[in-house]
Amino acid sequence: MGFDFNDTRVVVAGGSRGIGRAIALAFAAAGARVSVCARGAQTLDALRQDAAAKGWELHVASCDLGDKTAIDGYIRDAAQALGGLDVLVNCASAFGRGDDESGWGMSMNVDLMGTVRACHASLPYLRESSRAAIINLTSIAQFHPSVRTAPYAAVKAAVSHYTSSLALRLAGDGIRVNAVAPGSVEFPGGVWDDARRDNPTLYQNILAGIPFGRFGAPDDIAEPVLFLASPQARWITGQTLAVDGGQLLS
């Protein structure tokens, strides 16, 4: 069964590269009207041009998802451009690695508070929709201790917990809130693409721990996101779905 998102208005916060980009294009391919924000104007313009080449018109805007004022303004402008809002997908990550002020600050401000602020800004529009859904991107790093990326893992766990809390709060409004926790996903310019080149030992160790024998691709994550946003998932809320090729099992 294919997804039909005709007349559905979708915001992808943090969607110019990798997983977010794949999600935005998948929604557009399914007929949705899509707005995408990110910090980089160049990658946003490339996304818009790639979509236009396939006949899809995307609304794009630069936005620092660590800045509340910028988020509020972007969500307002996106809802105006789309004629409302039905689905919010939060994808942005600062990928704070070091267990220091910088690592924690980036992760808290973008991964956690960027998600919280985008949800808050979107609620007035989502409450006017009959098919409202929020999908937050977390990570399977949230499920186990991480020496290498302690802030990232802890903050993604916080996003997952917030997802369930918000789902309970918004159930009475008919707004579903779920999360997708990707495993290790490789794409050009991403963390694992860099590791393949700069840290091949780590790359091979992670690859060896994925039972399916390959890193994930952005499209592997995009389609579950579309499912959770679709009417087929109408009785699902407050859940975090691991999409990892069995990586958590190893």
Automatic annotation (TrEMBL):
GO MF annotation: an example: oxidoreductase activity
Pfam families assigned: adh_short_C2 (PF13561)
Top-rank taxon: Bacteria
CDD domains: SDR_c
Matching InterPro entries: NAD(P)-bd_dom_sf, SDR_fam
Gene3D superfamilies, per database record: NAD(P)-binding Rossmann-like Domain (3.40.50.720)
Record's keyword terms, sorted: Oxidoreductase
SUPFAM superfamilies: NAD(P)-binding Rossmann-fold domains
Family according to the record: Belongs to the short-chain dehydrogenases/reductases (SDR) family.
Name of the protein: Short-chain dehydrogenase/reductase SDR
